[in-house]
Design the sequence.
């Protein structure tokens, strides 16, 4: 047995996010987990980081990116997130296309972003399963914290643009909705056959990976992660989710503020963004940072996203800053959007999103305010290991 | 007459005036200074506690020609049917109703270059305009402000997919040379013909445009990311003795000494954003600082819609953080682009006689909490919080 690995961050202003007010003191990290916080004894054998004059935050979280599947510094060679040959590809897994060495993960860690979801794109009605993983530069296996975090789905302009150009369905919003319903019905039929077959191998349907991938959705073990910008697309998604009694997360949700009551009543969370980018198409014309405030005030669980590579993932902090500056939303509440709220929407709040005993030691030590463009991230720590700055 | 009083005035002409006064008359700056008498009839704008600076200038955008919030219907920046189209003029495609102009004035950007895109080796004529108005002709500061040309991946991707030339960097260079040679012949024919109408060549709008480049009436504005593309652009400009500026200049930091010797200006950006192609792999916020130290005149650009023009101060702040001194960074979004665009007699600093393009900010432009409170163009308040 090797000795316990202990790291102590001392003299810090600790923004736990679990509480509004920062705590002064130390954080003790044992074997990658947070062991103690506050005015605590530091064991002699601990490695220490003196954070005097700096602040510590939980690692920030972007719950909707294409990191690793849309790689930096490449063209089509690194573009592996849209399989535009079939509009229903629930069997695809982002995990199989992620390059853990994509430089974007390094840049994310450098900016203090320690957890992301990497997801298939929005060309297909059903794009495939998404992965929640840590950033930095280690191997994929040790970084993945939720291997199947949902099935990516998409409504609106993207699927109809891609497939109408191929003279195929869907070329309308009606077609998009019909394909989603059909896929869910197929999966229900498949699940029913399996249930009826029980132990009778003769009656068991042949294994079907497309349908199999949707069973956890039907069982509400994972949500459909629904790309939807326009209010009507959001409403259609909610309609279908309620018909099939499944869970949704609303991704982008650019016009959710126009139907805030309907979204609130559905109980589904919204991942808003990339609000800082140029509106590139009709369905994003009405996007506004105000919607973050409107949805939050309505009691909807909201997170922010850069949709990397649409915006570079490090702009998550710029987006959060802009929400505070331009809408006057409470700063602590905005910090929650990029930490604990994102963790909840990804279903990983037991591991990340706040500084609490027992959680993963994903910590950012920052000289200055995290929203200040000129602030310096001194250290980014993931699972108790310093990932930024890199070892010399 | 208007008077902006009590502000901390960054003139960008070498002075920071605490409690400064700016007098504005007929759209022009009449005077600026510390203890100026304010005429009784002047309408006062009290800028106490505020920072006052010249409107920011973005020397490389596609505002109005790649309209935001629209798809194909508003995309008028790339005529991808012929790789050499010097006769095209950005002004003919600018829609002043593009929502991006609203973002620009709200973000304190008062003057822009609007250039054709980079699909063509020779894309067409770029124009310098103000960011406020309904009729583009009334917004013009300088037309043309340059001839857009492009090297690297974009033209070769567009035309190789059409099975046409250029499909290599060699052909990109060749098409530019051929056109400049043809223009030189056209110019010589014109000169030889003199007033002899029989000997004059037929009027040719493509050649006419290039002749003006050969006469150095305006520069080539060369889209070039990679160091080799930048080098090729400069090689050709020297062969034909024409003026050139480097747009994007993404790998400029790798050949900073060379660029310093050549005294070419660099329009660096967009540095915010990702690197979705190979030629962007070395994108770095350190580029502007390294180029400045090598003696290169630097402007920072958004390439809107690549990223929104109103985020120019964020890009500037990050360039400053990565090594560009503060004053130089502010110059890179005000007087430097004005000088590179040849419009510094009108914009880019707060000096008597210049256009009253002035912004009033709640704080320093690099502070994340700072908001633009007022934007004035030609002395008129075009945005107010």
Sequence:
């Amino acid at each position: 047995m090797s000795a316990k690995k202990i790291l102590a961050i001392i003299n810090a202003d600790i923004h736990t996010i679990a509480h509004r007010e920062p705590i002064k003191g130390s954080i003790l990290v044992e074997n990658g987990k947070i062991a103690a916080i506050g005015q605590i004894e530091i064991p002699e054998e601990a490695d220490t980081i003196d954070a005097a004059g700096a602040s510590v935050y939980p690692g920030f979280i972007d719950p909707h990116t294409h990191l690793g599947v849309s790689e930096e510094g490449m063209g089509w060679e690194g573009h592996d997130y849209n399989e535009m040959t079939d509009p229903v590809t629930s069997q695809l897994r982002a995990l199989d296309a992620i390059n853990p060495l994509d430089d974007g993960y390094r840049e994310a860690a450098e900016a203090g972003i320690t957890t992301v979801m990497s997801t298939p794109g929005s060309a297909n009605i059903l794009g495939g399963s998404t992965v929640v993983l840590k950033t930095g530069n280690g191997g994929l296996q040790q970084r993945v914290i939720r291997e199947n975090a949902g099935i990516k789905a998409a409504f609106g302009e993207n699927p109809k643009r891609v497939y109408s150009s191929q003279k195929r369905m869907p070329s309308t919003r009606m077609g998009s909705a019909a394909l989603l319903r059909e896929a869910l019905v197929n999966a229900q039929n498949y699940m029913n056959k399996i249930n009826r077959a029980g132990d009778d191998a003769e009656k068991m349907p042949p294994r079907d990976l497309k349908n199999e991938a949707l069973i956890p959705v039907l069982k509400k073990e994972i949500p459909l992660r629904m790309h939807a910008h326009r209010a009507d697309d959001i409403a259609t998604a909610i309609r279908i989710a309620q018909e099939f009694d499944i869970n949704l997360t609303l991704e982008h949700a650019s016009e959710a503020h126009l139907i805030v009551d309907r979204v609130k009543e559905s109980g589904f969370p919204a991942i808003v963004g990339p609000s800082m980018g140029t509106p590139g198409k009709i369905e994003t014309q009405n996007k506004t940072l105000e919607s973050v405030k409107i949805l939050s005030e309505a009691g909807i669980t909201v997170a922010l996203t850069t949709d990397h590579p649409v915006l570079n993932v490090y702009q998550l902090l710029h987006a959060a800053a802009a929400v505070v500056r331009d809408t006057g939303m409470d700063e602590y509440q905005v910090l929650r959007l990029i930490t604990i709220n994102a963790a909840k929407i990804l279903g990983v709040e037991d591991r990340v999103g706040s500084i609490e005993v027992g959680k993963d030691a994903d910590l950012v030590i920052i000289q200055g305010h995290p929203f200040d463009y000129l602030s310096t991230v001194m250290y980014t720590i993931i699972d108790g290991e310093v990932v930024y700055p890199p070892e010399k | 007459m208007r008077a902006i009083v009590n502000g901390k005035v960054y003139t960008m002409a070498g002075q920071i005036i605490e409690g400064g006064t700016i007098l504005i008359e007929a759209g022009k700056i009449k005077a600026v200074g510390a203890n100026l008498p304010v005429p009784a009839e002047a309408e006062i704008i009290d800028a106490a506690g505020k920072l006052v600076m010249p409107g920011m200038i973005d020397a490389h955008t596609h505002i109005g020609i790649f309209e935001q919030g629209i798809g194909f219907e508003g995309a008028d920046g790339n005529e991808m049917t012929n790789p050499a189209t010097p006769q095209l003029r950005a002004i003919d495609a600018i829609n002043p109703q593009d929502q991006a102009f609203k973002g620009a004035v709200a973000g304190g950007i008062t003057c822009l270059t609007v250039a054709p895109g980079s699909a063509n080796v020779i894309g067409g004529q770029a124009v310098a305009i103000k960011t406020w108005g309904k009729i583009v002709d009334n917004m013009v500061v300088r037309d043309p402000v340059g001839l857009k040309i492009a090297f690297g991946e974009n033209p070769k991707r567009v035309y190789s997919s059409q099975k046409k030339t250029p499909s290599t960097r060699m052909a990109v260079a060749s098409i530019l040379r051929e056109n400049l040679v043809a223009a030189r012949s056209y110019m010589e024919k014109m000169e030889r013909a003199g007033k002899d109408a029989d000997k004059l060549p037929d009027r040719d709008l493509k050649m006419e445009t290039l002749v003006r480049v050969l006469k150095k009436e305006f520069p080539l504005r060369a889209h070039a990311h990679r160091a080799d593309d930048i080098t090729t652009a400069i090689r050709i400009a020297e062969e034909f003795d024409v003026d050139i500026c480097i747009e994007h200049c993404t790998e400029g930091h790798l050949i900073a000494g060379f660029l310093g010797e050549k005294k070419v200006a660099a329009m660096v950006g967009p540095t915010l954003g990702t690197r979705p192609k190979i030629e962007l792999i070395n994108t770095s916020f350190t580029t502007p600082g390294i180029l400045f130290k090598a003696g290169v005149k630097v402007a920072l650009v958004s390439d809107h819609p690549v990223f929104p023009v109103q985020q120019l101060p964020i890009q500037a702040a990050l360039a400053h953080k990565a090594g560009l001194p503060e004053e130089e960074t502010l110059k890179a979004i005000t007087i430097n682009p004005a000088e590179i665009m040849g419009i510094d007699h009108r914009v880019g600093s707060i000096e008597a006689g210049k256009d009253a393009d002035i912004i009033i900010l709640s704080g320093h432009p690099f502070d994340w909490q700072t908001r633009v409170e007022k934007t004035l163009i030609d002395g008129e308040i075009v945005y107010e919080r």
About this structure: The longest strand of chain A covers residues 6-14. The radius of gyration of chain A is 21 Å. The mean pLDDT of chain A is 96. Chain A has two domains: 1-59+354-392, 60-352.
